[in-house]
Design a protein that fits this description.
The structure holds two protein chains of two kinds.
Chain A lengths: L2 E5 L2 E4 L5 E8 L5 E7 L5 E9 L2 E4 L6 E6 L2 E6 L8 E8 L8 E2 L3 E5 L1
Parallel strand pairs in A: 2-11
Antiparallel strand pairs in A: 1-3, 3-8, 4-5, 4-9, 5-6, 7-8, 9-10, 9-11
Chain B lengths: L2 E3 L4 E5 L4 E3 L2 E3 L6 E6 L5 E7 L5 E3 L5 E5 L4 E6 L8 E9 L6 E4 L3 E6 L1
Parallel strand pairs in B: 2-12
Antiparallel strand pairs in B: 1-4, 3-9, 5-6, 5-10, 7-8, 8-9, 10-11, 10-12
Classes of the chains: A mainly beta, B mainly beta.
């Protein structure tokens, strides 16, 4: 079965600093990959999704960007963090050979100070 | 635009009693509906889905959900609640988009099961 790794698990960064969050997956090939942000412990907002290497779709214009340099690697970045970037970031995948559900990684807690 | 609504921020139930977490949806076309559970500081875990077929869908950990097209609802149920079921529950609807298949989540319902 598939496994999703996210690191770091927690991160505290000052305003204006850069960001790089990494998501890697195992046990699957050519998955769809997704980045979500969860603010205030509740609502989930889709930020980016990717259907293949180098293919990124952005859902919400913001201070973040995403890249997929390899089939099983999905990176979330920012050049300058804002306070509003704080939240719980979740990576998810959907295996095309299976049904429609997405599977989520353990998440990264980002606090911008 | 497709959406789901979870009208209850919190549901309290005694252990051993049946539980229901409500979800209503708004879609154009056939609905693809999902339930997920989240424990504190963890990622979401998939519970069950409705794509087509029987209106009663069975999932993980003894949960089930009933799809009701006339009421546009997809309520999550369990016959006998456990304290360990206490968590945050999300209903979601899928949008089919040229391969992306995006999920739109409700705002979540906190379930608290008490002894």
């Amino acid at each position: 079965s598939q496994t999703i790794h996210q690191w770091p698990a927690t991160l505290v960064q000052p305003v204006g600093s850069p960001l790089s969050l990494e998501c890697t997956v195992e046990g699957t090939s050519n998955p769809n990959l997704y980045w979500y942000r969860q603010a205030a412990g509740r609502g989930l907002q889709l930020l980016f999704y990717s259907v293949g290497i180098g293919q990124i779709s952005s859902e919400v214009p913001q201070n973040l960007s995403a890249s997929r340099p390899q089939d099983r690697q999905f990176i979330l970045s920012s050049k300058k963090l804002l306070l509003s970037d704080s939240g719980f970031y979740l990576c998810a995948l959907r295996e095309l050979a299976r049904s429609y559900e997405q599977y989520f990684g353990p998440g990264t807690r980002l606090t911008v100070t | 635009a497709q959406s789901v609504a979870q009208p209850e921020d919190q549901v309290n139930v005694a252990e051993g009693n049946p539980l229901t977490v409500k979800c209503t949806y708004s879609v154009s076309g056939n609905p693809y509906l999902f339930w997920y559970v989240q424990y504190p500081n963890r990622g979401l875990q998939f519970l069950l889905k409705y794509i087509t077929g029987d209106n009663l869908v069975k999932g993980s950990y003894g949960f089930e959900a009933e799809f009701n097209k006339s009421q546009t609802s997809f309520h999550l149920k369990k016959p006998s609640a456990l304290v360990s079921d206490s968590a945050l529950y999300f209903c979601a609807v899928m949008t089919l988009t040229g391969g992306g298949n995006k999920l739109t989540f409700g705002t979540g319902t906190q379930l608290k099961v008490e002894l």
